[in-house]
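Hello forum,

I keep getting stuck at the same step: I have a sequence, I want structure tokens, and every attempt I make locally crashes halfway through. Rather than fight my setup again tonight, could one of you with a working pipeline run this one for me? It's a single chain of 386 residues.
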Amino acid sequence: MGSIGRYIFRTTFAAFLVILVSLTAVIWVTQSLHDIDLVTSQGQSILVFVFITGMIIPLLVLVIAPIALLIAIAHVLNKMSTDSEIIVMNAAGMSPWILFRAFLSVAVVVSIGVLVISAYFAPKGLRMLTDMLTEVSADVVTNLVQPGRFVSIESGVVMRIRERRSNGQLVGIFLDDQRDPAQRVTIIADTGELLDNANGTFLVLQQGMVQRFKAKQPDPTMVVFDRYAFDLSTLVHGQQAVKYSVRQRYLWQLLFPDPKDPSYLEQPNEFRAEMHDRLMAPIYPIAFAVIAFAYLGAPRTNRQSRTVSMLGAVGGVALLRLAGFVSTVFGATMPWMLSLQYIGLALAFGGGLFVIHRGLIIEPPAFLDKWLAALVERVTRRVATQ
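Reply #2:
Ran it on my machine without issues. Output:
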């Protein structure tokens, strides 16, 4: 790679990193707000909140990286065209392939990163997210119930404690259970402790009273107890084995699934569709680079509009990714649909490389170009007068 190639590689890769980090941060913050209840209602620290929500970052990078690469290539090509660098290179006899190789090098680096993230880091992050959420919700009394607050630990179950001592003992317990429509159970106890054994998880209460309000009976039934065990097994999930979804499987688990895996036996078509989607994920950055350069890489004068070419590149990329998405979604039930993404990628590579090799300029019809230029001018004038 010559000095020009290194210049293009550095500029494009730096722009890619800036765009990738910016878009990932914005989308991560937006998605994190959905889980803010981990801090507000479940009593978790901000560090736990950041750690849990941070597990989706590899998946976000996997989705955003090809788009960030497209934006970076379009930005660099537009800048080089504005500065007349592409025209000078073309006038000096430089082949479009030489210019394209620098962008292709960036696309290959991005593809390798996407492959690694798709094969390991994205499913690993989703697994850690599932494990962490399971752990957070496993001990509902420890994580949810805070002294002095009425907290709904499940639909129909409200609990309040006055104090939690350093040894884990709960003091001043109020528990209201309305899950059974036939009766409502209210429990008041002086103290209580959590007990885990082979039979499940129980809240062992001491020195209290149970009130049962049965339907169609005006008066409750009250029982005073010295020791009473309230079953929490249906409210906790720590005893249950974590079952990972197809999206949470590593790439090699999709390529060589365990024939005895219950999930694979239940949904083999989903495994196959996900496998094809993972295998194609590293190809999309290269395909996006081909499409972007085919539309924007040809030399143009400053008087030639690049707006339509930019829209064409975005439209081509969107259409290609939509074909892949449709192929993955419907391929689980109709296996022949999986070929749609292969056909789309083949057309994108074939058409794009042909345009690059021949040095063709993809331009819209003259009437469309004039109409778009007039539209842009009217919009610009209107915005300037406001």
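The chain is about 60% helix and 15% strand. If your local run keeps crashing, start a new thread with the error log.
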